[in-house]
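Quick one:
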Amino acid sequence: MSALLTVTCAVPAAGAVLTAALPAGSNETRRRTTKAVALGVSAVTLVLAAVVATRFDPHGDRFQLTESYSWIRSFGITFSLGVDGIGAVLALLTAVLVPMVILASWHDADPGAAGPDGTFENARRTQGFFALILAVEAMVIVSFYAVDLFVFYVFFEAMLIPMYFLIGGFGDRAGGPDSARQRSYAAVKFLLYNLLGGLVMLAAVIGLYVIAQDQGFGTFDLPTLTSAIADGRLQLSGTAEKALFLGFFFAFAVKAPLWPLHTWLPNAMGESTAGTAVLITAVVDKVGTFAMLRFCLGLFPDASKTFAPAILVLALIGIVYGALLAIGQKDIKRLVAYASISHFGFIIMGIFALTSQGQSGATLYMVNHGLSTAAWMLVAGFLISRRGSRLIADYGGVQKVAPVLAGTFLIGSLATLSLPGLAPFVSEFLVLVGTFTRYPAIGVVATFGIVLAALYALLLYQRTMTGPVRDGVRTMPDLKARELAVVTPLVALTILLGVYPKPLTDLVNPSVNATLSQVHQTDPAPAHPVAATSGGERK
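Output:
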């Protein structure tokens, strides 16, 4: 039995402990050592996640590289890991983004930096900040690899703790004199919303275990449960299945976030550093949409089909609602947050359209949104750190004094509106096609979200980067070498996957097809099939 998955999860966890244990100090040498260790650990994790993805055989078993270690025998709980194509791709996305976040956040936790109110935030500890980032990475990767329901639940909830401290303890310094109180409010709101969802899910996990145990399946092992449900050996009554589905789905919808359970996200992203905001929307939130595919559809196929139309309506509202609020934002970070709510609506719509195109597009959307939003948000963070303000009105004419910064910001903006040739276009196109084939009315209305995305993305670029150079922008430096090292790989991947997404689709499509077979769904037949031809003549 290979231990590759365990090692991949253990490296960032051990790195978090090591980083936190390094000697604290205010001198630059100690801070550089801490940062170098964190960056090195994240680089090793990236290599391991890449090895997992390359060793996964799309034509092999559903779950591969499986590992299982006894944990709580009396309840049938094992520390079981296994990877499918979707989990491999999302874990690799996480491993790609974390080094970028660390590099982008290089000075975000340096002690002695003056805040906007003139005070010095000496309580910041470099060791703690980077240890928390690595801890989040470890817990997210375990969530993507876990094939035991109890293990997944533990890490699904545990990742909230380091995120709480990252938001509340290491928040944005450009938030004004009341920023400490606003950070505290955002952190508490994030924690309470997600804890509530997790508690509801815990009740559903226990309920499923009790029902399964009564029928001779005293286990939390996902492959065992889904197989037993699929062949009828484990039977759930209609009412029980719907109740359990809603328990799981509620937790995932909070984390995703799906309208109307989204209200924690703008506060959390607005009050976080740019790097933490990327962790929230590009990494942690993906666990929610991933879990909808793996657990909701796999464990509760009939309930998934029953609730799919209602979920699609909520996703459609989220698409339009998030985009409209993004257009009206005055704060750059909150604009990106509302744009993400709109994008998550597309992802959830693709999942519950229950078509191969929709679910393949949704999985690609998780990856592509992670890359494009990370690039957009991190460049916005570089911009904000230079000017010391998140308000759009404080900018103007940036492209004349910092053309490289403006150029990369433009690419992020164009990716956000799904310009053809950039990665999000492929995934959004597949989601819309997959939705239209089964729910044409919803697919048509959802396309309106593309128009709104063009509005908020291009208006933001126009108001910040073009026009006369404002006084606070005149001395703004362009991107430095470290910042270019952050942005360049993200931009390159966004372009590469926009013109050649085949490596990702080859990995995820078998898992998508397996998910559809679990819910006993096939793609709808074309409304106007092409007539058979013989010898070039139409019959």
